[in-house]
Amino acid sequence: MAWPISHESLAGYQRTTYESLGFGIEQQDDDHVWSGIGKVAPSLGEELEVFLTRWLGIPNFAQRFSDQIHRDDTISLLLNHTVTGFSFDGARVNGLAVMTPHGEVRDLAARVIVLAAGTIESVRILLHAARLGSGNCPWRHNENVGRYFADHIGGRAAEVKPLEGFQDAFSTIVLNKQKYAPKLRYKDQLLERNLELNIQGFFSFEGSISENLAVLKQFVKSALYSREIKGVLPLTRNLVGCARYLPPLMWRYLVDNRIFLPSGSTVSFMVQAEQPASRFSRIEIDPNDLDSYGLPRVLLDWQVDSERVLQGIYRFVSRADDALRASDLAELAMVAELAEHCDDYLRLLRDTSHQSGGAVMSRSARTGVVDENLRVYGTENLFVCGAATFPTVSNANTTFLALTLATRLGEHLARFFGR
Fold first, then answer.
1. CA distances (Å), 266 to each of 181, 205, 269, 317, 362, in order?
2. To 5 degrees, how large is the angle CA 16–CA 409–CA 124?
3. Distance CA 91, CA 119 (A)
4. Considering just the CA atoms, what is the radius of gyration of the chain in Å?
5. Which of 75, 98, 213, 299 is the most exposed place for a label (fewest CB within 10 A)?
C-alpha cells in the first residue's frame, strides 16, 4: 500500500519530536555522533550502510514527562476508566462511553477525540462500535477496519566471527550520556531498484559477563529511579563476576565512549524484517466472547507471505556477509535452516511487538480507515494516532514514527480546532 504523505513532509516533525525527547540537532545526525568519538561510519559498499539507533535514558513516558503533566493546568488525567463506545450525531462523535473502576458506565462529552490506545486496542473499539448495530456509526460499512495488520518478524540469522575492526564498528557508542547502537540496513537506492523487503540487521552479544552486567544495570536503575531493590546478594555475586572485566570496561566507556565487548562473547547476527502488506492479515473481534468490560475479545489472524519473507531474509544476510567480509569486519555463518531455504526457519523467528495496521492511512475510505490527517473517514472529529495507521512498516521500530505523527496531529488539531 502507498502512504498518502511523503517522507519529506514529515522531516520537520521528526526534528521536533527528537527535540521533545531530549535529542539536540547534533544528536540527531549520525555523522556528528561518529565524529564525536573520532571515527567515521564504517563503509559497507554500494548496497548496505551502517546507521545509528538512539536509546532513551528513561523509556517510560509517564515517568519521563511526569513533571510536565503535573505542572500543565490544561492537562487532566482520568485514570483506570475504560472506553466502551461512542455517541454520534451524524458525522460528529459527541463523546465517549466509559466504564469506571466500579463498573459504572458514564458519558464523557468531547469536541475532539483521538484514539491512541495501541494498535490492537484502538482497532478493537472501532470494530466494537461498528458491530453494536447502530446505523449511525460512520465507519460501520468500512470493511478496511481491522485489515492490513502487520508486525516485524525478527530473530537470529547467523553466527558471527568478529574480525579486527568489529569492535570499533559495532560496539555501542556512549556520548554525552546518550547511547547509540550501530546497525545495518539496505541503502535507499537498492530498495528502490530491487523492491526488496526492508530489513535491518544488528548484533547480539551473549556470555556470562552479559548476564552479570544486566543485573548490575537493573540495580543501578532501581537506585536512580527509586524502585524496589531486591537484595544485595545478587549484586555482590555479579560484581565478583564482572571484576576482571571492570578495568577494560571502564576504560572503553570513559576514554573511547564505547561499550566494552569481552572477547569470549558469543555474537549472533539478528534480523528485523518488514512484513509485506496483506489485506487478509487482520484484527477481528468475537462478539460472543466478552471481557469484564463488556468488550469483545480480539481474534488476530496474522497472515505472512512466508516465501517472500524467507527469501528476503536470505538475500539480506548473504549481502551482509559479503559486505562485512569485504570490509574485514566480520564473517557470518548463516543459520542452517535459513541457508537451506527451509520453511522451518520461520518457526525460529517471532513477532517483535511492533504491531501496526488495522486503521490504515489512505487517500480514500475505499482503501483505508483514516485520511492523511489521521481523521476517521465519515467523521468530523475522531482521529486515530499510532502504528495502527501505518500502511507499511519498513524495518524500523514503530514508536518514533508514531510519535512523529502525534506531533503532526497536534499541530493539525491546534490549527483547526483551537487550543
1. 18, 6, 10, 18, 45
2. 125
3. 23
4. 24
5. 75
Residues written for the chain: 419
Q: How do beta strands 266-273 and 282-290 pair?
A: unpaired
Q: Is 63 exposed, middle or buried (0-12, 13-18, 19+ CB in 10 A)?
A: exposed
Q: CA quadruple 32, 33, 39, 42: dihedral positive or negative? A: negative
Rounded CA-CA distance 366/75 in Å is 36
- The single residue listed with the C-alpha cell 544528536 is 27
Please report, as a single letter, which amino acid is at residue 137.
C
- What residues pair up with 308 in beta bridges, in sequence order? none
Q: What is the pLDDT of residues 259-306, one digit of tens each?
A: 766 666 789 999 999 999 999 999 999 999 999 999 999 999 999 999
Residues whose CB falls within 8 Å of the CB of residue 182, separated by 6 or more in sequence, listed in order: 41, 42, 50, 51, 52, 169, 170, 171, 172, 173, 202
Pair 159, 331: CB distance under 8 Å: no
Three-state helix/strand/coil letters over the chain: CCCCCCHHHHHHHHHHHHHHCCCCCHHHCHHHHHHHCCCCCCEECCCEEEEEEEECCCCCHHHHCHHHHHHCCCCCCCCCCEEEEEEEECCEEEEEEEECCCCCEEEEECCCEEECCCHHHHHHHHHHHHHCCCCCCCCCCCCCCCECCECCEEEEEEEEEECCCHHHHHCCEEECCEEEEEEEEECHHHHHHHCCCCEEEEEEEECHHHHHHHHHHHHHHHHHCCCCCCCHHHHHHHHHHHHHHHHHHHHHHHCCCECCCCCCCEEEEEEEECCCCCCCCEEEEEEEEECCCCCEEEEEECCCCHHHHHHHHHHHHHHHHHHHHHCCCEEEEECHHHHCCCHHHHHHCEECCCCECCCCECCCCCCCCECCCCEECCCCCEEECCHHHCCCCCCCCCHHHHHHHHHHHHHHHHHHHCC
The pLDDT of 178-199, averaged and rounded, is 92
Residues 178 and 194: their CA atoms lie apart, in Å, by: 35
Determine the Cα angle at 382 with ends 146 and 353, to 5°.
Answer: 40
Question: CA-CA distance, 124 to 295, in Å (whole number)?
Answer: 8
C-alpha cell at 22: 531530549
Q: What's phi and psi for 299, nearest 5 deg?
A: -115, 120
